[in-house]
Structures are given as structure tokens and as C-alpha cells.
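Thread: pyridoxal-5'-phosphate complex, take 2
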Amino acid sequence: MKKRKNSLLGIAALIISVCLLSSCGQSAASAEKNGYTLDTIRDYVVGLDEEMELENGKKKAVTNFDNAATTPALQPVMDEVNEQLEKYGSIGRGFSPKSDYSTDLYNNTRDKVLEFVGADPEKYTVFYVNNTTDGLNKLALALIEKKSDLVLTTRIEHHSNDLPWRENGTVIYAEVDDQGRVMYDEIEKQLKNNKVKYVSVTAASNVTGYVTDVHRVAKLAHKYGAKIIVDGAQIVAHRKFSMIGETEDENIDFFVFSAHKMYSPYGGGAVVGLTEDLQEHMPKFYGGGTIYIVGDDWVEYADAPKSYEAGSPNYPGVVGLGKAIDILQEVGFDDIEAHEKVLNQRLVDGLKKIDNSIIYGDSEDLSDRVGVITFNFSDVNSQLVAEELSHSYGIATRRGAFCANPYVWRLYGLTDEQVRNFAECSDINTPGMIRVSFGIYNTEEEVDYLLKVLPEAIKKAKKTNEENWGMAEPLY
Ligand SMILES: Cc1ncc(COP(=O)(O)O)c(C=O)c1O
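Output below.
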């Protein structure tokens, strides 16, 4: 097995793609203005008025506060995908005008992604993935060479930025503080005391919404000879994100994100990584599309990104991602951030007025949180409340431990041993929180609606519990 470096074919492909950049529909520089703003965006969100049957038989449009899980589609994203499918041909393989057109659009979207995250095309390569989980697994498979390779991550992480490292390498963790924030001095302590190869951190938590200062972490990682990977799943639709720091040692080496969390529900996402490092490693998944030539018992593999994209690609996912980037940039991240802060504050202020509420994370200083608020009520089971919100009021939230179990247990103050006792329990009798996560289209009126119905939902949840002989502990 061999990987060819700096091949002539690779250089030729680069020259062709640069030349075509100016003539292809979705070039990085050509995004035109279409009137997408925070005030108008709601008109473009698909399905907001769709009435769904509630458990009580009534029909109602759903108020969606589950945007951290996935975001609804935007009509212009769907339109773009449908339009581009008229000209769809095989990517990178066929000889036809449609194939040429689709291949250009597919490749030129890499430039758009690079621009979106401020990465220098001379140094960074984009490869497409199915989602953040897939991207982090692929990176772990590629970068980790032996089980003893040390990865430092934190106790704030989603399982997708924990388990791939656990399974492929050896993981150590930086703890969180009393409010659930990442502790940077812990990160430095771990780096100082251990020979860490990679630091992998989330840019924003899906549980508390805390934004990590990833450039500060990058500086620490580089100081101790490690490379940094950033899980961008919860940042890309919420904050302007640049992989480039104020100084070179603050630059991010690898960044991973999903398109379905940014209003393009066709699957897909991207890894943006240092070209030199990607070239140096083999991705460890193989097949069509990844090679230059195969002989009877030898293979010459292509350079990145081709070597990282085995099999036929998800073209609608890439087209949708490109369009979603255009729209988010046009709406503007300053406005998105300001809007989320208003919604966060309104919800937290309202929750504080409800008896027995518990808000996780820092509920006084919300300035370093994206639009995610997680809470409980100490006198009622959270699953029953979330069910009530859905069944009676058509409000979508999430309840549970949000694929970030170790972090949620810490916010609860539960020890690992205590958590083991819940292993065999049904969901309802396992600790869980209610999460409200905002999208760019959510409104203050929607927050008020939730706050208005919450006391009723709590009352109904308690009644359900009584009628079922105390089926559920409050658990908070
Ligand atoms: C912080 C974080 N990382 C990773 C993921 C995984 O993303 P995906 O399900 O798109 O792979 C999520 C999903 O919620 C997340 O919130």
C-alpha cells in the first residue's frame, strides 16, 4: 500500500478546480444577497405551520425547541438541491456535461467551506463526511496510530467526541468547574503531566451551550507539542467561527461539523484539516474513489481529500451545505448571537419564577452560552413534563442526558458509582434534564408560550404520576 504525495494528477486537479471556480454556480466569492435576515428567516423555514396531531387528538403547529439535535430545512436550501439535481451526474467519474458540472459544484463547495471557517486553502483540506460523529471517527481512525497514543479531551464532551478516541487511543480528561465550564488550567495541567498527541474539544456544549475558547486551548496544545481537533457541531449555526487565531499557535488543526444542524437536512458535513497531516495518515476505510491505481497485489492511494472519501458521495448533502452556509452568512452571526442572548435571558428569567426550577450551568452570566438552556423541577419527573409539553402543547424539547452522559452526571453531582445503579433502569427512572435549544427562527413569543404552559404541564405530569402509583421519581 502506498500513498502518492504531491502527484502531478493532484496538482492538475487543483489547477483545474481553481480555474473553474470563477465559472461555477456556487463559487465562494459569488454569494449574492437574497434578503435573508433574522426578521425574514422564519418565512423560509419549512414546516413551521404544519399542524400535527397531538396525543389529545387536537391539531397544532409544533413549537420547535429541539434545534441542537437537528434543525428544520430552509426552503431555499431545498430549492437549491432540487435545482442542482436537474444537472446531476456522477461525481468525479463520468464523462458528460452533467458529470462535469456536478463535480465542479461538489469540489468548489470545499472552497466555500474553507472560507466559512477562515482556513487557508494552501494549508487546509476539506473532506466530506456524513455528520460530525462520522468525521470524528474518521479522524480518530486516521490520526491515532497505536492504542497508547494519548488524547486529551474534557468532561463537557458529546459522546461523539469521546468514544472514538476511547476506542482507538487512550483518553485523559480535563474536569469541569462547579458551574460546568471547561477548566483551562486543568487542560494545561494534563498537557504538562502527560505526553498528549491530540487535544479534542467541543466549540460549544450541547448541554449547557457554553462556548469553549478553543483558540486558548489550541495555544496550550501547541505549547506542549499536541495538535488540536475541534468538534464544531454546536457552533456552526450559532457563532462566526474561524480556525485561525490571533497568533499562529492559536490556529485550529482540525474542525468537524454537520450540515443537518445548520438547516440542511440532507446529511453530510465536513472535516477541515491540515493537509500535511491528512496526507501523512491513511484514513483506514477503503474502496472506490480513494485510489490512483490498483494492481493485483498493490494499491496506490490518492491524496486527501480523495483518499478520505470512499464510495459515491452524498451530493445533495454537499449542495445543501453550500447553500446553508450562504444563508447563515447573509443572516449574519452578530445578529444570530444577539438574538440567542435575548431568548436565553427571557427563558432563564421566566424559569426562575417557576417553583422548584433548577437551571443547569451558570444562570446569572449567560454571556458565554449559545442558545441552549437545560433545566429541571425538583418536585416532578422531567420525562413526564417533556411528554406533557409535547402531547398537550405541541412543544418540542429534548429530555435525557443528551449523548453527553459524563457531563450531565457532573451537573447533577452524581458519582460514577451512583450512575451505575441506573444502568438497568427504564429511561423515565434515569436522571434526565429538559433541554430547550434555539434556532435562528425562534421568537420571544414562543418562549413566552412555553413559560405560560410550563406550570400547567408540571401539574398534569404530577397527576399522571399519581394516577400511575408514583411510576417516576422526580430525579434532578
Ligand atoms: C457537541 C456535539 N458534538 C457532536 C454531535 C454529533 O453530531 P451528529 O449527530 O451530527 O453526528 C452533536 C450532536 O448533537 C453535538 O451536539
